Amino acid sequence: MAIFKAIRIDKAEKGTTAALTQFDDADLMEGDVTVAVEWSTVNYKDGLAISGKAPVVRRFPMIAGIDFAGTVIQSTHPSWRAGDKVIGTGWGMGETHLGAYAERVRVKGDWLVALPAGMSGRDAMAIGTAGFTAMLAVLALEKHGLTPNDGAMIVTGAAGGVGSVAISLLARLGFHVIASTGRTSEAGYLRDLGAAEVIDRNEFSAAAKPLAKERWAGGVDSVGSTTLANLLSMTKYHGAIAACGLAGGMDLPSSVAPFILRGVCLLGIDSVMCPIARRKVAWERLAKDLDRAKLAEITHEISLDEVMETAPKILAGQIRGRLVVKIA
């Protein structure tokens, strides 16, 4: 049996506690594949779990971290053998199943995706759940039938992980991208990613009208609440908004007007329980369509020791782009 480092979350008298500590792999949960974790990342949900700001963790003790890339060291699953390079995201890791902020993880082989050819584990975690979610949103907008000829795309939370990757993907596909952010000082960064316009998120802070002037064919929203309601009211006929986040709240103070008078669609994006076939398509597209040079420019590396001090910063919107965590 091996002892390894991990960020462990425990139930406390008031809330939870998080600490970098030693963990015995004899205490890992059931699974048919054991992976030596080499890279992880920090997502908004990870920040919530470590800080205890929301009831993300539903089992204690818990190892935090919802994403990993690493090498299989033991497997009884027919699809995987020792030495395989794999990616794991979602499926309740860091919530109900011991997660990725550890030097070792044990999971179901059916949860894993092969690391695409030409992509490093570091690259995969620079993408992480945030970039994977952005790709799922783009796939949903494409399935809806939207093309650059239909009009602009709006991306909210633009300087964050989902927003940054969504801008890069949509711009590379030829869309006119409008980036919405509360950090207008990041306009240069967002334009470098491919945004054609940068607007202040305060444009969406007032109560939404049932219908407003049509401004875009679709978009990717990671904010929710009043922001999403405004986006829907300003979406063109037969447009669509892919919703994948709730940084601004879980409510949706909207009306049915955009749906029944303009045929607008609200596309729900879930990355946690996403079927494996769709995951494979998304990662193949990410390997092909995402500008790896731009990804490198927006990525910053930290150690496992630095994750806990980073968690509050991502919740406060102080992290630009993507973070990778070097585990090994």
Describe this protein with a few key phrases:
single chain, alpha/beta, Rossmann fold, 28% helix, 7-stranded mixed β-sheet, 328 residues, 2 domains, 9 helices, Quinone Oxidoreductase, Chain A, domain 1, 6-stranded parallel β-sheet
How does this structure look, described?
With 328 residues, the protein is α/β, with parallel strands linked by helices. The protein has two domains: 3-115 and 298-326, Quinone Oxidoreductase, Chain A, domain 1 (Alpha-Beta Complex), CATH 3.90.180; 129-268, NAD(P)-binding Rossmann-like Domain (Rossmann fold, 3-Layer(aba) Sandwich). 28% of the residues lie in helices and 27% in strands. It has nine helices and 16 strands. The strands form three sheets. Strands 3, 5, 6, 7, 8, 15 and 16 form a seven-stranded mixed β-sheet that branches. α1 packs across α9 (307-315), α2 crosses α3 (161-172) and α2 crosses α7. The longest helix is centred in the middle third of the chain and has 23 residues, at 121-143. It is globular and about 60 Å long.
> What is the CATH class of the largest domain?
Alpha Beta
In the CATH hierarchy, what is the architecture of the largest domain at level 2?
Alpha-Beta Complex
The CATH topology of the largest domain turns out to be Quinone Oxidoreductase, Chain A, domain 1
Give the averaged pLDDT, no decimals. 95
**Using only CA atoms, what is the Rg?**
20 Å
> Could you give me the name of the CATH homologous superfamily of the largest domain?
Medium-chain alcohol dehydrogenases, catalytic domain
Q: N- to C-terminal separation?
A: 18 Å
Helix content: 25-40%
Can you tell me the residue ranges where pLDDT is under 50 for at least 5 consecutive residues? none
- What form results from the Cα inertia axes? globular
Q: Structural class of the secondary structure composition? A: alpha/beta
Order of helices and strands: EEEHEEEEEHEHEHEEHEHEHHEHE
Number of helices: 9
